[in-house]
């Protein structure tokens, strides 16, 4: 039967050590120093936006405040359907459906 050392490929045996009280205090002091440095660094951080990004933000807010569909056109189509004057162009509808299917397949 193979020994553990043979299975490990003759690697050095693993050893464990215990932290003494002094090592724990040193680690705590280092952790405090790192936290203090992070606190100081975060106060110095600043962000500035370019003119273009501010303009994009304004456009985004403007578009969000506007309705996402033309309610006048919807009312017009509803009226045309109600009075029977709305006509569907079957060829155009079929072409659009095929284009949509092709776009889905290409994705």
UniProtKB/TrEMBL annotation:
Domain Anti-sigma-28 factor FlgM C-terminal: 45-98
InterPro entries: Anti-sigma-28_factor_FlgM_sf (IPR035890), FlgM (IPR007412), FlgM_C (IPR031316)
Annotated keywords: Bacterial flagellum biogenesis, Cell projection, Cilium, Flagellum, Repressor, Transcription, Transcription regulation
Protein name: Negative regulator of flagellin synthesis
Entry function: Responsible for the coupling of flagellin expression to flagellar assembly by preventing expression of the flagellin genes when a component of the middle class of proteins is defective. It negatively regulates flagellar genes by inhibiting the activity of FliA by directly binding to FliA.
Top-rank taxon: Bacteria
Compositional bias annotation for Polar residues: 8-30, 39-51
Region (Disordered): 1-52
SUPFAM superfamilies: Anti-sigma factor FlgM
Keyword match Transcription: yes
Gene source species: Salinivibrio costicola (Vibrio costicola)
Family: Belongs to the FlgM family.
């Amino acid at each position: 039967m193979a020994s553990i050392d043979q299975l490990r490929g003759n690697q050095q045996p693993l050893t464990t050590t215990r932290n003494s009280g002094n090592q724990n205090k040193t680690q705590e002091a280092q952790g405090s120093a790192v936290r203090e440095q992070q606190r100081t660094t975060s106060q110095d951080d600043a962000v500035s936006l370019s003119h273009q990004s501010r303009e994009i933000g304004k456009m985004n807010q403007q578009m969000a405040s506007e309705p996402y569909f033309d309610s006048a056109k919807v009312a017009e189509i509803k009226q045309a359907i109600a009075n029977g004057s709305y006509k569907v162009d079957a060829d155009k509808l079929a072409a659009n459906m095929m284009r949509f299917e092709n776009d889905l397949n290409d994705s």
